[in-house]
Amino acid sequence: MPERDGYIAGVPCWVDTSQPDPDAAVDFYRGLFGWELENVMPEGSEGKYFMARIRGGDVAAISPIAAGAPAMATWNTHIAVDSADETAAKVSASGGKLLMEPFDVMDAGRMAVCADPEGAVFFLWQAGRSKGAQVVNEPGALNFNGLNTRDPESAKRFYGSVFGWETMSLGPATEMWTLSAYGDQLERDNPGLRESMREGGTPGFENVVASVQTLGADQPDTPAHWSVTFAVDDADAIAEKAAELGGQVTVPPFDAPWVRMTVITDPQGATFIASKFVPENRDISAGAGASVGAA
After folding, report:
1. Residue 146, CA distances (Å) to 41, 76, 208, 233, 272 in order
2. Is the Cβ–Cβ distance between 12 and 136 less than 8 Å?
3. Cys bridge to 229: 29, 144, 177, 244, which one at CB 3.0-4.6 A?
4. What pLDDT sits at residue 173?
5. Which ranges of the chain does DSSP label H, i.e. alpha helix?
6. Rounded mean pLDDT for each run of 10 residues along the chain, 295 residues in total
7. Which domain covers residue 101, as residue numbers?
8. What is the DSSP string of 57-76?
9. What's the pLDDT at 217?
10. Are residues 158 and 225 located together in one domain of the fold?
11. Which residues are 136's β-sheet partners?
12. Do residues 292 and 257 touch, judged by C-beta distance below 8 A?
């Protein structure tokens, strides 16, 4: 089901984009995805936080770049935790860095900003009033999160220690982060899901929480980073629309296992993936198509 009301610990639950000019980003993403956008900061606040919604359900957000952060537009992955403080301590103990110590976001929740040993930035989110994305896996909504790394073995040790993630291989350069408790939750909410996954040729995929892709030698200047993927109903049309709105098609639409996808950079430089589910592409090799590890 595309509607969600909370996430268990260890599951990516939210994405937002930090932008030099949030108002301009609102125009771009409204035009691209048809999002309903509202500044939800209290009246008189200096900053803005534009909540993006589909049918009234939260899907993502647009904000200014935080004070002291690099002046570059990014898409940010937030991972659900039971305790931001306890998980932040695990990050430090496992070789990662705390870029921002845990802090309260009014009554919405408690968060921390972290980097893994390679420098890939991610956020911890301990839910309060805001539990994460309410609409997922439909056009214009969050579909997937992925780590792009040069050292997958080190990443496995770090994220396994912090979140308890394991991996499932899809080929020489792509694996999936898995969490069996997530599959258990989805099976409870959707009885028969595991059986349908087996029948569909993707046994174990119900446990998947994110992907991990090894950056290739053809991307020597691309740092390790987390990426976000939005579902679309037509990857070719969304690439054309993004260009019309002032964005850049970083990787033109191409076919990959189970999907047709494209990589887009918005007018201020934040990159994301747009992906259409294509069952007919199930037998395409995992190494086919262009690399999507753009920063």
Report:
1. 29, 11, 11, 20, 11
2. no
3. 144
4. 60
5. 22-33, 84-93, 152-163, 180-189, 193-199, 235-244
6. 82 97 98 97 89 97 89 96 98 98 96 98 97 96 96 96 92 81 84 78 80 85 95 98 98 93 98 95 62 40
7. 12-127
8. EEEEEEEEPPTTS-SS-EEE
9. 77
10. yes
11. 142
12. no
Any idea how long the chain is?
A: 295
Please tell me the predicted confidence (pLDDT) of residue 292.
44
* pLDDT given at position 171: 65
To which residue do tokens 């997958």 refer? 152
How far, in Å, CA of 175 to CA of 127, rounded? 28
Kind of pairing between the strands at 174-178 and 166-169: antiparallel
135 found inside a domain: no
The reported pLDDT for the residue numbered 172 is 66
Q: At what angle do helices 235-244 and 22-33 cross, to 10 degrees?
A: 140
**Tokens describing residue 243:** 């260009």
3-state class of 260 per DSSP? Answer: strand
Contact 38, 235 (CB under 8 A): no
Do 155 and 277 fall within a single domain?
Answer: yes
Could you tell me how far CA 144 lies from the centroid of its own chain? 5
Give CA separation, 142 vs 78, 160, 161, 182, 283, in Å. 12, 23, 26, 17, 24
Give yes or no: residues 148 and 275 share one domain. Answer: yes
Among residues 127, 155, 172, the one where a domain terminates is 127
Query: Is 1 among the domain residues?
Result: no
